[in-house]
Amino acid sequence: MARVAFYSPMKAPDSPVPSGDREMARNLMQAIAAQGDTVELASRLRIYDKTGDAQVQTTLRAEADAEGRRLIDDLPSDTALWVTYHNYYKAPDLLGPRFCKARNIPYVQLESTRATSRLTGRWAGFAQTAHKACDAAQVIFYHTANDLITLERERYGDQSLVELPPFLPRSDLPPASGCDGPMLTVGMMRHGDKLASYTLLAQTLSLLAGDWILDIAGDGPARPAVETLMAPFGSKVRFLGQCDRDALQKLYETASVLVWPGVNEAYGMIYLEAQASGLPVVAQDRPGVRDVLAPSDYPSVEAGPKSLAARLRSLLDNPALRLSQGAKARTHIAERHLMPAATDRFWQATRPLMEVRS
């Protein structure tokens, strides 16, 4: 069994601020440890430059330099592998490559992106560092076909690129929904892409004839804007606020359909959670999102809200279709997106690296 150092530059897995990024980091730590290996959070140092500020980058580099020296001195001597999650131009890994070089151990990355377009401009320095960190990795695990495009184009030497589909931190499926409750939306209320999805959702609902009810689970700084978008629908839209995991699971088990357009989602854990409970999904056919959805006829982005409303209406009018779509979704999750498969894929690619060093 191995001792693994895990690091997530943008947000530590034990951050109090919820997000899909934090959730995936937690899931990855659990999956890596599932065969009995020890996985320890190497550092909570946050390396994140949201706006492309040279002074911020300089300050973060100084903090990382001090932290890097500490880690080389303090981490256990039997640390055999370093794993970094989500290295990219706004949050480059300033610790892993240095530590692995000093300790002569393998370095791997999960869900990294290469943004050559950022090698000039406000993030140029951080982008270059993220690029070099990718070069230092013996293995990069990618979650979506969209991520693979640039990773393959910029692959360094004999580096291995290994698919690791997004997954749920469980080995079995939860109870199946009867698909006969209200529609369900699950989404943080933030400005930017999340609000864009809520805007598209409101446009879709305005075209949805007949009786319907939508429950919205989520909260955040853009809630007033979301409430304004949904005000025309009155009591048809119910705001549930932020829900914990158990409450969300009960919602999945009692809803009829999950609807979330998915504007610029990396992939979206909610799609995995809903499908595991047998909910059919209404989303747009977008890069990343399509990697986690069971095969079906999802509306194109170009088709806009009208096509989303049509798909919703067809599901709301046909209980048998909802159940059959939901059953296919459960099968898809069971075959591809549960933790045991992720654990196997990870260690098949990484144990040989440690054997070479031993």
From TrEMBL:
<feature type="domain" description="Glycosyl transferase family 1">
    <location>
        <begin position="208"/>
        <end position="331"/>
    </location>
</feature>
<dbReference type="InterPro" id="IPR050194">
    <property type="entry name" value="Glycosyltransferase_grp1"/>
</dbReference>
<keyword id="KW-0808">Transferase</keyword>
<dbReference type="InterPro" id="IPR001296">
    <property type="entry name" value="Glyco_trans_1"/>
</dbReference>
<protein>
    <submittedName>
        <fullName>Glycosyltransferase KanE</fullName>
        <ecNumber>2.4.1.-</ecNumber>
    </submittedName>
</protein>
<dbReference type="GO" id="GO:0016757">
    <property type="term" value="F:glycosyltransferase activity"/>
</dbReference>
<keyword id="KW-0328">Glycosyltransferase</keyword>
<dbReference type="Pfam" id="PF00534">
    <property type="entry name" value="Glycos_transf_1"/>
</dbReference>
<feature type="region of interest" description="Disordered">
    <location>
        <begin position="1"/>
        <end position="20"/>
    </location>
</feature>
